[in-house]
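The records we work with from here on pair a chain with its fold. These numbers are not coordinates but entries in a learned vocabulary of local backbone shapes. To see the layout at work, look at the sequence and tokens printed below.

. . .
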Amino acid sequence: MTPKKTHREGQTSRKDENGAENEIPRRDQGTMAGQAPQPDADSAGVAAVADAQAEALAVRLEEAQNRADEYLDGLQRERAAFQNYKKRMERERAEQSQSVSGDLLLRLLPTLDDFYRAMDAVPEGGRDQWFEGVALILRKLERFLADEGVVEIEALGQPFDPAFHEAIGMDAGSGAESGTITQVLQRGYRLGDRVLRPALVRVAP
């Protein structure tokens, strides 16, 4: 006689293909009823640790972003300072070069004055081929000065301007408006904004 099998609490049985019964664990009644398992203390602790780590990471990320912003701001300031320095150096070199050129050109002005005086001293009837040759040399000298940026200062008939003119006398009987330049005794020249030599003039009182 075969002994009758008994099932332990919480188990059921089913027959396999050979007719033998196999025990199957019975599911928890709460789970069978559709209720979710309650989290234990370990799960709550893991969640708390994860939250703390995320918060710490967010703080570190914010600090890193602030430092990056500071570095970028400093870099931009240094770059702007370097650009200003570069522009200042270029401007100073240009001014120095212009100053040297101006000093050299200033030394040519007396020679130019001599040419003008020589040309004015030749009477109308004596202006022969020699005169034309000297005039050609004078035009070349004027062209050279113009190419270097030398400009003659306007004077005759202009209002007197102490920045560009130097008065050495008054023309009381000229009939011109007061302060008007009536005569130019020596031409004046400028190079850019620099006055190489003011014009020597006479002015109506």
Summary: The helical segments are 29-32, 41-121, 129-147.
